[in-house]
Amino acid sequence: MNRHKLGTLFYILCISSIHQSEAITLERDKNWLILHDERVPTGKIRINYLEAYCRPNSTDADWHETTIGHKTELSNISENKKNMQLSCTLSDGVIIKHDIRSSEDEVTFEIKAHNPTALISQAHWAQPCIRIGEFTGFPHRGKELNDYLPKCFIFINGKLERMSEIKPWAMKARYTPGQVWCPTDVPRKDVNPRPLSSLIPSNGLIGCFSKDEELIFAVAFDHYQELFQGVARCLHSDFRIGGLKPSESKRIKGKIYILENKPKKLLARYKKDFPK
User: Fold this and answer.
1) 145 near 179, Cβ under 8 Å?
2) Are the C-beta atoms of 254 and 274 separated by less than 8 Å?
3) What DSSP letter does each residue of 90-123 carry, written as one string?
4) Which one of 81, 128, 168, 214 counts the least CB within 10 Å of its CB?
5) How far is it, in rounded angstroms, from Cα 52 to Cα 191?
6) Distance, CA of 124 to CA of 241 (rounded, Å)
7) Rounded to 5 degrees, what are φ and ψ at 164?
């Protein structure tokens, strides 16, 4: 093989190696889905996946009355750690399969919920709890639970708004602190029992900026119950199931984006992935 061909092969191998090292990889640790990404602070983002499956009429209910018991098992993870399958069995018999795939700058969720029983399921929504304290430059534990809000955002009236600038900010609920934003097609009585904003989000994106403002982290589902800023320096796009009739199946799609700090690029990706 001549020098030119050797040089070309070496270049291809180097580019391939760099590309592979930049890809997001997946890990399962107990109930945690861990995204490994060399670009982010500490090299990883932890997600309680899933924290809970929930019933309707939850806005004014005790949390223990809202949640439906479930067990999540790892079905498979690929050798390259870029594809994972999880299976959730709910206490009412519903089976929910999660196919999770990662690439260079995103993670895709393909979810299938099926009710094999003869009874209607009250599984209306589910909570992936994404811990973004360290990504935004704050410890994952601490007393001041709203210190990371200047780094977090949703879209209001088509514009990216940092949560520290959003007004009005709801303050009263069964449980505080926190903030819930409910889309127009979801009953406001069926969301998290935290302070419920009067503002309606423009889309299903919720996200934050990294400590150095170089990166954007964002999450969205095509059917979402609520956007939620929580009490563990977390962000939620809680996906909507809407209940399941006997023998009924439903599919939900979700995305996590970890991109350079270009909100217009984020919006373009979101509109392409969720055209409806």
Assistant:
1) no
2) no
3) ETTS-EEEEEEEE-SSEEEEEEEEE--SSS-B--
4) 168
5) 13
6) 5
7) -65, -15
Report pTM: 0.91
Task: Tell me how crowded residue 129 is: count the other CB atoms within 10 A of its CB.
Answer: 21
Cross-strand bridge partners of residue 234: 131
CA 17 – CA 100 distance, rounded (Å): 23
Contact 152, 207 (CB under 8 A): yes
Per-residue pLDDT of the chain (276 residues; tens, 9 = 90+): 555 554 444 444 444 444 444 789 999 999 999 999 999 999 999 999 999 999 999 999 999 999 999 999 999 999 999 999 999 999 999 999 999 999 999 999 999 999 999 999 999 999 999 999 999 999 877 778 899 999 999 999 999 999 999 999 999 999 999 999 999 999 999 999 999 999 999 999 999 999 999 999 999 999 999 999 988 999 999 999 999 999 999 999 999 999 999 999 999 999 999 998
Q: Distances from the Cα of 119 to the Cαs of 36, 48, 93, 108, 123, in angstroms? A: 40, 28, 9, 31, 12
Starting from the edge strand earliest in sequence, which strands make up the sheet with 159-162, in order?
70-77, 83-90, 95-102, 106-114, 249-260, 215-221, 201-209, 152-156, 159-162
Q: In CATH, what class is 3-273? A: mainly beta
Secondary structure class of 43 (helix, strand, coil): helix
Amino acid found at 104 = E
